[in-house]
Write a structure and sequence with these properties.
Number of domains: 1
Helix content: 25-40%
Mean pLDDT: 92
Distance between the termini: 15 Å
Structural class: alpha+beta
CATH superfamily: Gcn5-related N-acetyltransferase (GNAT)
Shape: globular
Number of strands: 8
CATH class: Alpha Beta
Radius of gyration: 17 Å
Largest sheet: 8 strands, mixed
Low-confidence stretches: none
Strand content: 15-25%
Order of helices and strands: EHEEHEHEHEEEH
CATH architecture: 3-Layer(aba) Sandwich
Length: about 220
Amino acid sequence: MMELYTGSDEARFPDLFRQMYRQRYEIYVKRRKWRGLRPLGDQEKDQYDTQSSIYLLVLDDEDEILAGLRLLPTVGPHILGDLFPQLATAGVPVAPAVLELTRFYVAPFKASKSVRDWLVGVLCAGMIEYCLASGIERITSVIDTFLLKLMLSMEWGVRPLGMPQRYPEGEAVAVSVDMTSAILASTRRTKLVSGPVLLARPRPLGRVPSTIRLLGAEVPQEFAV
């Protein structure tokens, strides 16, 4: 259901990456109107889309991306450390076991609230599964303050790294979240996500049916609690 790619996969899957960059353009440039971005035509690709970047993508059975996120190693260039260090008053967490969460989104297609909420749960559960399997102990992120409510609704132990600060398009805060089996369980329970979602061989998971993009579609029962 959720598939793992790194920046080194872009040459092998150029159409998939172009689709992701176009979706990010639609969301962050056209809808959110983040003026600090420097899009490449109709693609939102920045200096952090490198070979070491990690992408978790939810795809349907027609190769359409339904949702995605990007994880950046904090031991290299990343957004909190480079652009917003002032949001972490006690210092920016940097370690091999700490990743930064960025570009978290559900694709801009017409869907019911229940489907979009479920896709958020799939993204979050898959990220935690990946972290637990990879020895990642914590994620950091620079988020809009309105996303704190989402994190708390999944019973995450969110730790602000400093006080919120205004930016031209909203209010941002830097946060840290420990990756634990407890928050994986609470994320699955609160978002009605059934079992593992991150594709793992040799027992791959099926993809989400493309009919989920139709207005009025429901969450696929084979993937829900």
